[in-house]
Specification:
single chain, mainly alpha, 434 Repressor (Amino-terminal Domain)
Length: about 110
């Protein structure tokens, strides 16, 4: 339902202010929806998705991260979290191979 601005001194200002609020609200909801997918995943889920997308094995990922196969296995099982050093390295791979929906330019 369109809102009509009256011709008074504040009519157009109020309409523009209302329009800006609606647009800002819509943009926020679109941004939140497009970034929810990857950000709400656990580290274990992200690693599983990374291996699925790249076709890598746990052993290959461990080699790329310079850690043991057992460490990657524990991270995937969710029994342990990677140290900050490995989390930073993993984030680089996540950002490269697991783009957020809507980021692809086709």
């Amino acid at each position: 339902m369109p809102i009509q601005a009256n011709n008074g001194p504040n009519g157009k200002y109020l309409f523009l202010k209302w329009t800006k609020k609606v647009v800002d609200s819509l943009l926020r909801s679109v941004i939140i929806e497009s970034t929810e997918g990857i950000k709400t995943m656990t580290t274990a889920e992200k690693i599983k998705k990374l291996l699925e997308v790249t076709g890598w094995t746990q052993e290959l990922l461990a080699g790329k991260l310079h850690c043991s196969f057992n460490s990657v296995n524990r991270w995937m099982a969710g029994t342990r979290e990677p140290l900050a050093l490995y989390k930073r390295a993993l984030e680089k791979y996540f950002n490269r191979y697991l783009p957020v929906e809507g980021d692809r330019h086709e």
